[in-house]
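Loading example: each entry is read as two labelled lines plus one structure line.
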Amino acid sequence: LTCSSGRTVTACIYSLAFPLQLLSRQICVSSAAWRKNLAAAGPEKFSEEYIKKQVEEFNIGKRHLANIMGEDPETFTQEDIDRSIAYLFPSGLFEKRARPVMKHPDLLFPKQTAVQWGEDGRPFHYMFYTGKQAYYSLMHDTFGKVLALEKYQDSMRNKGLFTKDTRQMSLTGSRWLLKEELEELLVENISDHDYTRFLQLMERLLSMPYCAMEEEFVQRFRRQLEVQSSKQEIPAVQHDENGVAFSQAEGRRKTAKASIKLRDCGTGSITINGKSYLLYFPVLQDREQLMFPLHFVDMLGRFNVEASVEGGGHCAQAGALRLAVSRALLSFVSAGEMESMRQAGLLTPDPRVKERKKPGQAGARKKFTWKKR
Amino acid sequence: MNLPRLYHRLRLTARSLHSSANGQQVEKVAVAVDPDVPSQVSVFRTSENDPTCHTELHAGQYYTLPPAHMRTLFPHGLPPRFQMQMKTFNEACVMVRQPALELITCLRKADYSEPALRYVLYGEKGCGKTLSLCHVLHFCSTQGWLVLHIPDAHLWVKNCRELLPSSSRPGRFDQPIQALNWLKNFKTTNEHFLSKIKTTQRYVWTKRESTEEGRPLGELVDQGVSRVKSSSDVVGALLRELRLQAGGAAEGAFRLAVAVDGVNALWGKTTLKKEDKSEVLPEELTLIHNLRKMLRNDWCGGAILTTLSQTGSLFKPRSAYLPMELLGEEGFDNMDPFVPIPVSNYSDKEFESCYLYYLDRNWLQHPHSRTEDGKKELIFLSSRNPSILERLCAFL
């Protein structure tokens, strides 16, 4: 920690990285005042030395853990660590973040800036006094690039080589950084307005003809979009003894679980828990839910469905069956149709579950009667 | 049907179907718009309105009940939804289906010197048991039989406002209103028989009223209608008379068709309570007791046609439709032996015909329902069940 232990109390007390014990020793106040001061200044931040020590301890601990588990310390990855910790410290807690965890200190401790000024109190960065030095320096650099591009354009025009159809960057399949991600990159807080201004400046940069020259700079602030449907699992098509193709799938909704067998028979009959679907779902809405995936791919009379469902109410069971049927249909359907099914929302499990009741309220949202006095 | 009206209707059908621009429908009508074949107006309708002549050829087609017959035969017999449909479409069209045809063939071939055969129509809820029964009753009445139709036996075991202790027997209960209604309807149905049949015994109703031997049945019925208190006993007497005289002597010989819809009510539970809040058993009701005697096959010269029904039944689960489940042990033993006739959902051909009928009557307004896709959706959603299909099309 590069601090001046011999310093007397001056106006720079309000720097964040100082441990306050040093200052209070100078002032020689009673311990009561010292305790009050600590609370006022905020939580204790982690120093660089401290974090380095944590990293060393982590590495040694990792080797110890590998030895305990009887594995090779050299090739012990983070997944192995997680597995071992879950084995050695089994936890019944529902919240995953509350369970015991062993990770690299860089992931656990929040990133914080090092001390921004030197021994003489002069800040290192020339934009320190703006308050958000990283953000403003970024904006300044970007605008500098904009000006450079304009200058380049002018020079090309002067030479007579100005053309509009230069190589364009491909921006499809990627998105701008989110505000949280930008904050993480710059290690300081940004307001919504600042974020908007940043995006506007980037768009302005991209609108210029020769922007391809700054491609790597721009790509630093873009993230790839993952293709969703490539992750979909398609159940395998099996054949039973008569040679009829069938596939099995499961679906869940709220508390209902459904598992079905879709047979390529040709009758279009549906049996749920041994009963006909007309008896099991007297409500029209449930039968419509069941019909949706088959009707969407135009295979209404083609398949036989044998389903077993349990838990939940009738709507939840219908939703679970619908998801299961859509998943089972994936093995009989082309990739393009799978993509359109995904866009129709047939393959997305519904995340809505019953919200917890809170103390002090009658239900999840309903409050007790409000009395004015 | 006279030819000009036939042509008009054909033209209308063709025009409406042409405007919906559905190639398949146009094809079908093009086949049928052939003036040389007037009896096949279209694939779903037949002009053969006499159930005596209905055969396998007419299976799946609709025939129209003549309005005159309607009022006499079915003052109370048709299901309420069918009555609403009749009012909307201005005609009463019933589909000729396999179970009804089977029953009619059995009735034709039966030997009426033997004790009466019992037929039970059973099937899932909404399959068409009641309407099949009505079709068969139409056949019976055209043959000149005496039709004893109890439209819904469940009405006699529940929702009774007035339950009087019986005047004739100590342990029994009378239901004057139900008996009165039924007698009135019976009178409408069988007017011409009432003067022909004579009573065989003297019935004493009160100290001052009695019906002598040899009086026409009409007097008995009037006695019940005018004196409400003894109407249940009148019903009992009526049933007894008919039982004794059916298929008997040559000069007044008639065949008796006893049709009970919802026969499982006779052996189930009731929801009626006595004054001390204890439950009334079905045996303790006069009407039920007499009806049970009627259903025993100890008389000749007629047939007993019954239907099981879960719709009005008490304390039975919705999925129950087999005779064993709905009749219970006691009922099954009483009804045994009987001829079971299963009624199932529409077959492909019958569904096609129903769909065309609704199209013809302009009942399916939604443009999507006239396409092939829409038809597949209807098949799926209703699972070819007639009543569910009817309810579904009601808001299309």
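Residues 1-41 of chain B have pLDDT under 50 and may be disordered.
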